[in-house]
Amino acid sequence: MGEVRAALDAARLVGALPRLAAAPRGDGHLVIDIPGWKAPEVSGAPLRQYLRRLGYDARGWGFGTNTGSTRRDIERLAARVVELAEETGRPASLVGWSLGGVVAREVARLHPEAIDRVITYGTPVGGPTYTTVARAYNRGADVDGHRESRRLDESNPIRVPLTILFSRRDGIVSWQACIDHASPLAEHIEISSTHLGMGFDPDVWSIVAARLADRTRSS
């Protein structure tokens, strides 16, 4: 029931506008936003617009609604990211919400040379098994792909910087399922948002902007 408060999380954006406007300016590098399961690509439009205002080349992933075909999405997004990285001459950053974060992680594992960093929020590291909607995921998402992700975490951990946002108020994905014990460059940050409100939470936006700016300072 706590998820019905997602609208309140979004409303907090209004009061946070001065803080968000004071975020560090971006360097123009490519940032790709990946929606969560069953979420349309437009769900990330407000965050992308904010990142563009900061000076990033923020884009959607280009495949519309995330239908849960994880393996297919990893393959086609990986191809797109590699192509764009070659065009721009710079690695891209990936931002993924929920299942979108699973896709982002696997793209980074496959092509670390094309990825600068990955930022996820509400993302089950081990797949949907530990979520409160596991049965729905099992009907609609590529469960085998998630099992493969868990195996790869042990044999081939992700080696690009990872910022992992999790919340104890998340009514969809348990916060314990978001913890990455394998990736050597994983950073975990606790937030107070609901799962559905994360994409509109000003704290999430601030952290995304700050971590992308870390990339700017290190380039």
Can you describe this structure?
The chain has 219 residues and is of the alpha/beta class. The protein has one domain (2-214): Alpha/Beta hydrolase fold, catalytic domain (Rossmann fold). It has helices at 6-21, 45-54, 70-88, 99-110, 134-140, 143-155, 202-218, and strands spanning 30-34, 57-60, 92-97, 115-121, 162-167, 186-191. A six-stranded parallel beta sheet has the order 2-1-3-4-5-6, with helices on both faces. Strand 1 (30-34), helix 2 and strand 2 (57-60) form a beta-alpha-beta unit. Helix 3 packs across helix 4 (99-110). The radius of gyration is 16 Å and the shape is globular.
Q: Can you give me a brief rundown of this structure?
A:
This protein is an alpha/beta fold and 219 residues long. Helix content is 43%, strand content 16%. It has a single domain (2-214), classed as Alpha/Beta hydrolase fold, catalytic domain (Rossmann fold), CATH 3.40.50.
